[in-house]
Amino acid sequence: MARYLQRKGFVITQRKGSHMTLRDGGLVTVVPAGNKKLRIKAQFSILLYAGIDKEEFIDDYEHDLVK
What we know:
The protein is of the alpha+beta class. The protein contains three helices and three strands; from the N terminus they run H-E-E-E-H-H.
């Protein structure tokens, strides 16, 4: 998820323990660090804080931006 958000323009501003804080302008979101699989609800909660709606995420997934 952090890699996807970085491709969308977010920058890692802080890493503390097992979480990373990413920022893009006024938008701030916190994601777990590491390569763990996230539950769907957690993924969409992170996307909500990042200002990315479900349709945009699905479109990015179809165009291989999410990997």
